[in-house]
Structure formats: structure tokens, C-alpha cells
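Q: PH domain-containing protein, please. Structure only.
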Amino acid sequence: MSANPALVRALLGELCPAPFPNEVFVLRRDRVQCELHGVQTRVKGWQVRGTLYLSNIRLVFVALSTDESGLLAFDFPLCYIRNDKLNQPIFGCNNLSGQVWPAVEHGGPAGELPPHDFKIYFKEGGIGTFYHLYYTLAERAKKAFDEAQGRNRNNDANPPDYVTDLVSRAFVDPHDPSTIYLAQQPVDESQRLASAPRYAANYGEDEVYEPTGLRP
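A: Structure for PH domain-containing protein:
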């Protein structure tokens, strides 16, 4: 799903996306800001601070608090991201901009719903570690998806063994405060989802989101 994916309490008590089968978390980046257009909020957009998670199949942004519409978190499937660009302005903070198709019924590249414009601001610290890992995983996911002619194969693009090796050899930018998951995942194996999540039936129809499905 795109809006409000299932969340769990991580080993240190923070909210974390519940992992899909074969999903491996790569890193977590705190104190970032997400600007997302085209979502159902009072102002038809979302600008909020929170935590960004990167896995082998998606980016997930988890806000510090729930919007009055009920929006707390948002999925960015790596294979659905397009026109992504790293911006490093002279005045201002590093940011990642682009578009992402919603992963809901009638969404995706061949669907009827338009993509969301997004921008993620890294207001504290560098992005050398984050961007290298993100770019590598996203490009592989998009290439595999395109070669499959629309069949979702983003899990196959970045298998767990490949991700483990990639992270173990990743350049660590001393100015990048990202938390890298080298040996231990942020959640217990028992918190892994058994299958793909159920898409929110009311997405795009009203301003009330289904609960995130927070699991113990």
C-alpha cells in the first residue's frame, strides 16, 4: 500500500514498518522532512517531519505524529519511483525529489491514478551513506520492473544476500547520521508480515485513512 502501511514497535521502541516477506531494512534516517503532494489531507498535501526507512524494496516515511486526516506513514516502492533527483543547493539543505506512483488499486505506471510529487529534505547532516545505497537499490528495482514489462519483481531485484553484501561494503559518510542495519534488523522476525498488505479501500475517496495496523 502507499498510505499508512502496517507499522510495528522496533526493538528500541520506535515505530518501524512491518517487513514484508524477504524484505531487508538497510538504514534509518531520523529528523528528515517529507513534502508529498496529491494525498488526502485538509490541504491536499503533506509536509511533516519524521523518520525515513530504506529497505531492499521501498522507502517508508513515518511521521512524528498523525495528521488530522489520519495519515501517519507512506510507502515509496522503489520500482514505482521516477524522475528522482538529488538536489544540493548552495543555500538550503540536501533533498531528494521525484515522483512515485501510488501502490493501490488503479495505481502504478499502468493505472489511472497520477503519481505523487515528493521531496525529502535532509536538514541535519550529510547524505553520502544514504544516497549511495538508495541509488543502487532503486536503480536495480526500476530496471528489473521495466524489464518485466509491468510485472512487479522488485523483491527479485535486490535479494537479501545481495543487500547484506552491499551494506557490508558501503561507504560510510562520517557526516551522515543514518543508522545502518549491518547485522541485526530493527524488528523481531515474529513481526514480519505473512503476505502483501491489503490496500486501503478508501484511498483517494475521502479524507479518512484506515489505521496503520500497528502490531505488537
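A: Brief note, in case it's useful. Residues 93 and 123 are 6 Å apart (CA to CA).
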